[in-house]
Amino acid sequence: MTKAGLQALLSHWLRNPVQLFTLVVGLSLATALWSGVQAVNAEARASYDAAAETLGEGQFAQITATTGTIPQADYIKLRRAGWRVSPVVEGRLDGVRLIGIDALTSPGGIAPVGLNEGDLTVDMITSGILFATQDTLDQIEDYGVQTLPNPDVAPGVILTDVGTAQRLLDMDGMLSRLIVAPAQPVIQPPLADVVSGLSVRPPQGGSDVARLTDSFHLNLTAFGLLSFAVGIFIVHGAIGLAFEQRRPVIRTLRALGFPLGRLVGLIAVELLVISLIAGAIGVGLGYIVAAALLPDVAATISGLYGASVSGTLQLRPEWWLSGLLIAVGGTAMAAAASLWQLARMPLLASARPRAWAMQAGRGRLTQGALALGLLVTAMLLGWLGSGLAAGFGMLAALLIGAALALPVVLDRVLAFGASRAKSVMAEWFWADTRQQLPGLSLALMALLLAMAANVGVSTMVSSFRLTFTGFLDQRLASEFYVYADDAEQAAALRTYLEPRVDKVLPIQSADQGVRGLPSEIYGPTAHATYRDNWLFLNAAPDAWARIEAGEGAAINEQLARRADIAIGDEITLAGRQFAVLGIYGDYGNPIGQVIVTETTFETLFPNVSPLRFGLRMTPGDVPALAVELRDTFGLAEANMVNQAGIKAFSLDVFDRTFTVTGALNVLTLAVAGFAILMSLLTLATMRLPQLAPVWAQGLTRARLGRIEIIRAVLLALLTAALALPLGLALAWTLLAVVNVEAFGWRLPMFLFPLDYARLAVFAVVAAVLAALWPARKLARTRPADLLKVFSNER
Amino acid sequence: MLLNVTNLYKSYAGPDGALPILQGIDMALERGETLALTGESGSGKSTLLHLVGGLDQPDSGVVEVDGVDIGALDDAGRAAVRRDKVGVVFQQFNLIPSLTVGSNIAFQARLAGRDDTVWIKKLAARMGLSNQMEKYPEQLSGGQQQRVAIARTLAAKPALVLADEPTGNLDEATADTVMDLMLDLVAETEAALLMVTHSERLAARMGRRLHLRAGRVA
Question: What is the C-alpha separation between A783 and A789, in angstroms, rounded?
C-alpha cells in the first residue's frame, strides 16, 4: 500500500519537473548563500584563532622594552631570578612575519595546533625548520634553511626556533619580547629589580582582532540570513503549489482507504529526501561562493584591521552538517503550514487547481492585520527596546511585517490603477495584474527582501565609508607623521623639525582606567588643527576653548555609551576631576579615549614623553622632508607616514569591502530573479484559461507576451518603491540600534540616491530577464494549445 | 458573400502520424443567414469553426471572411479579423475573470473601437444583466455567464457570429431562453450565425444545416 501511495505522490514530480527543479534550486541557492557566508566567516575566524595561538597575544602577559628589543642577557637574568618567561624574536623576512619561539620554555598553547602531535614534535622546532602554510613559504627566498608546510600556522606567519630567527633577521643576541607563563613562583623579585627598561603588558583577554572584525562578520551573517530567507520564500511557494496541485491525488488516495497519518509521513519523508539532496548541492555551491569571495574578504579584513586571513578555503565537516541542517530546517519551516493543512483537510475537500492563488487572496485581510501587528512591534522595539536581542527582534519584525504587507499594498495600488484606467487594454491590464498577484506574491516578497537587503547593506557600508574617510580627515589632519624610536631621538627630531615645518604637533598618550573601563588619555597641543577638524557628536558651548584652558576633557563615544557619561558629567584622571565638555566619534576603537590639552596632560603624566609627531606643512614638501629625515636621523620608512598614502590605502580597503558586499548583492538579487522566473513559469501554464479568451477576441500572442513583460516591470518597480523605505529602515536599525548595542558606537546615516536608482534598474532588468522566457513561451504558444481552453479537453 | 470556404483541409499530429480532421470542406454563408453545423463527436465541427474564426490555420484551402483570405494573413492580421469581423461564443463561456460583467461585455467592442454604450446597455437589458454589471463572472450562474458571453460577442456588432455549442452547459429551459435571445439579436444586427450543435432541436431553429461526417460534408 505504501509503495502504491508513494508512486502516486511521486508521479506529480514526473508530470511537473519544473516545479521539482524550482524546489531543489530554490533550496540549493538558499543553502548556498547561507553556507557560503558562514564558510567565509568560519575560515576568517579560524585564521584569527591560529594567529592568536601562534603569537600568544591573547592569552599571556608579555614583557616588552621601551627600546623595542631586549638583550638576550636580560632574558637569562630573568630566568635565573625565577621568572618563568619564554623568548620571542619577531621581524619581517621578505615581507612575511617571522617569529622565533623557544619550544622548550614556551607556555602550552602558543604553538600552532599539531606541533606537539605526530611528526611535528618539539624536536623539529629546535632544529631550525621554518614552519608556515605553503602560500607563505612561497613568498620567501631560499635561505638554505629547511622548510615544512603546515596548514595550522597562521597565514602570513613563519614559525621557527629563536636561534634561526635571530640569524635570519640579523638580531643576534637580541629578543623582541618575552612571554610570561601564567604560573609563576610565589616568591619572585620585582621585574625592575632584575632588569631595567622593561615593562609587563597584561594579557589582552581575547583577541582584539576578532572583536574588531566582529562588525564585519555580523554584517555578512545578517546578509547570509536574508539571502536564506529569500530562498526560503521560493521553497515555500514551490511546496505550497505542489500541495495544492496534489489535492485531487491526496483526496483520491484517502477515499481509497490510504491512512492520513501515513500520507503525511510519506510527504514528510519525500520532502526530507529532497531537502537533503538540495542541501548537499547548496553546500557545494556555497563552497564555490566562499572560495570566490574569500580572497576579497581576506584582503578587506587584512586591510581594515591588519589581521591575516588565509586566502584559501578548507573543507570543514561542520559546514556540511550545518548546511544540511539549515536546508532541512528551512524546508520544514516552509512546509509546516502545508503539512498542517493536509493533516486537517476534510476527505471531501474539493480539488481546486487555482485554490493556491485564490486562497492567498482570501487570506489577504488576515495577512494585512498580521503585517500591521509586526510593523507596530518593530516600531515599539525600536522605541522602547534595549539590547542586541531587541535590535535583532526589531529587524526580524520589520522584514517579515513588510514582506507580509507587500501583497496587500500592491493590491491596493493595482486597484487604484484599475479605477483610473481609461482604455480597455489598460483596464484589463490592471485587473489581470491584480488577479495574478496571489500567485506572484511570494516571489515579489523575495524580491522585496533582496532589494531591501541591498539598500540597507549598501547604505550601511557606504555610510561607513563616508564616515570613516571623514574620520580619517579629522584624525589625520597633519600632512606628515613621524615616529621616533626612543625619547632621545624624539627630542632631537622635535628640535630639528620646528623651524622647518609650520607646526610640530606632539602625539602622546597614557593608558588609564576611566570609571573602571580601560582607556587611553591623549594630550594634544592647543592648535587650530584640532579645533577646526575634530567634530563633536555632542558638546558643551565653547568646548575646545575650555578644553584648551584646562577646564575639562573630551571623550569618545564608546566611553560615553559604556560608562553612561553625558556632557557636563565629571570623570577622574590621575586623581583630578574633569568635566566632560565634548563627545566625539571614534570608529573601530574598542576602548575608551579621553582628550585633555597638552599642558594638562603633562601635569597628569609627567613621565610620558611624546615619540610621535604630526607635522603641519605644505603637502608638496613632504617627500623632500622624508628624504632629509632618512638621511639625517636614519629614520626607517615605517617611521614616516604620509597622510595622502594612508587615505589612498583606506579607500582601497573600502573598495575591496564593496567587492564582497557587491558580490553578495548580485547573488541575492539573482536568487530573487530566479524566484520571479519560476513563479511566472508556473503561472504561465495556469494562466492559459485567462489569456485564451483575450487572444480569441483579437489580441496577438506576441502582444500578450509583451504585456507580460510590462507587467513584470511594473511589479518590480512597485516592489522597488516599497523596498527603498524598507531598506532605509533596515540600514537605520543596523546603524543606530544593532551597531550601537554590539560595538558601542553609532554611525551616522547618509543617503545615496544614485545607488538606489541603479538598484531599481537592476531589479527591473532582473524582472525583465525573468519574464522574458515565459513571455516568449506565451508568444509561441501554439493556437492548438490555446484552443484547448475552449474545448472539453481541459 | 460574407463567408466563403473552399476545399479546406486540416490534420493534427497523432501518435500514428497525421490525423486528418477536415478533408476538402466547401461552404458559404451570406450576411443575415444562420447555419447549424452538426455531426458526430470528432467529425471536425469545432475545428472548422476555429479555422473560420481565424483561431487556427488550415493545412490547405481558403477561408474568406468579408472578402479577406484569412489563411494568407499573419498573426496580427488574423487577430484583427477576430477583433473586427468575427465574434465567438464558447461552450465554456471563457469570460475574463478579472473584469466585471460590464467590462467583459464591452471588452471586444472597445478593442474593435466600436464602444457603443447605448447599445451595450440595451444588450445588457435584453439579456437580463442590467443588475449584474458590477459583479464578477464567478458570482454568476452558468446561464448568466453564457448570456454575458453572448452579449460580449454581439456588443462589437460582428459581421459573423460563431458559436460552439453555446448552450451545451445549460439546462433545456435556460438553453431555450439563451438561444431565443441570440437569434433575435443576430437578426437585429444583421450578422450571420454559424453554430456548432449536437442538438437536433436547436439545429431545427437555424436557417440551414451542414452535417459533417469524418471531416467531410455529408
Answer: 10
Q: H or E stretch including B23?
A: strand B17-29
Write the residue in A425, A783, A794 that is nearest to B55 by C-beta.
A783
Instruction: Answer positive or negative: Cα dihedral of A557, A558, A559, A565.
Output: positive
* The pairing of beta strand A480-483 with beta strand A612-616: antiparallel
pLDDT tens digits for range A747-776: 778 888 988 898 888 888 888 888 888 888
CA B194 to chain centre: 7
For A421-497, where are the E strands, in sequence order?
480-483
pLDDT in tens, A597-613: 999 998 988 888 888 89
Q: pLDDT-derived band of residue A315, with 50, 70 and 90 as boundaries?
A: low
10-residue mean pLDDT series, chain B (218 residues) = 94 85 94 93 90 90 93 86 88 81 88 88 90 89 88 91 86 82 87 92 92 91
Q: Give the three cell numbers for residue A470.
A: 571623514
* Beta carbons of B55 and A791 less than 8 Å apart: no
Alpha-carbon gap, residue A729 to A747, rounded angstroms: 14
Q: How many CB pairs under 8 A join A and B?
A: 88
| Structural domain boundaries, residue B80 | 3-217
The total number of structural domains that make up chain B: 1
Which positions in chain B touch A428 (Cβ < 8 Å)? 96, 98-99, 103, 107
How far CA A518 is from CA of A62, A385, A426, A553, A593, in Å, comes to 18, 28, 67, 17, 9
Is A429 within 8 Å of A711 (Cβ atoms)? yes
Q: How far is B177 from chain A (nearest CA, A)?
A: 22
Answer for the pair A36, A290: CB distance below 8 angstroms, yes or no.
Answer: yes
Nearest to A692 among B94, B103, B106 (CB): B94
Q: How far apart are CA A405 and CA A445, in angstroms?
A: 9
- Do B84 and A698 lie within an 8 Å CB cutoff? yes
Domain ranges of chain A: 59-203, 474-645
Q: Between β-strands B34-39 and B208-213, what pairing exists: parallel, antiparallel or unpaired?
A: parallel
Laid out side by side, the sheet with A147-149 consists of A147-149, A130-132, A157-161, A96-101, A85-93, A177-180, A61-65, A198-201
The helix or strand, by DSSP H or E, that contains position A703, with its residue range, turns out to be helix A701-732
Chain B residues within 8 angstroms (CB to CB) of chain A: 12, 46, 50, 53, 55-57, 75-76, 79-80, 82-84, 88, 90-92, 94-99, 103, 106-108, 110-112, 115, 152, 164
Phi and psi angles of residue A392, each rounded to the nearest 5 degrees, phi first: -70, -35
d(CA A264, CA A417): 43
Helices first, then strands: H and E counts in chain A: 27, 21
Interchain pair B111, A702: CB under 8 A: no
Q: What angle do CA A586, A592, A597 make, to 5 degrees?
A: 80
Q: Which amino acid is at A341?
A: Q
- Per DSSP bridges, beta strands A157-161 and A96-101 are parallel
Please list the helix, strand and coil fractions of chain B in percent, rounded to the nearest 5, in that order. Answer: 40, 30, 35
Chain B CB contacts of A700 under 8 Å are 75-76, 79
Count CB atoms within 10 A of the CB of residue B62: 15
Residues 6+ apart with CB under 8 A from A46: A310
Tell me the per-residue pLDDT of A229-263, one tens digit each, with 9 for 90 and over: 777 777 777 777 777 777 777 776 776 667 778 88
Can you give the pTM of this predicted structure? 0.67
Task: For residue B41, give the chain A residue with the closest CA.
Answer: A792
Q: What residue type is assigned to position A221 of the chain?
A: T
CA distance A785 to A302: 60
Torsion of Cα atoms, A786 then A790 then A791 then A793, to 10°: 60
Cα radius of gyration (chain A): 33
Angle (nearest 5°) at CA B32 between B27 and B33? 35
Q: Could you tell me the three cell numbers for B46?
A: 469545432
ipTM above 0.90? no
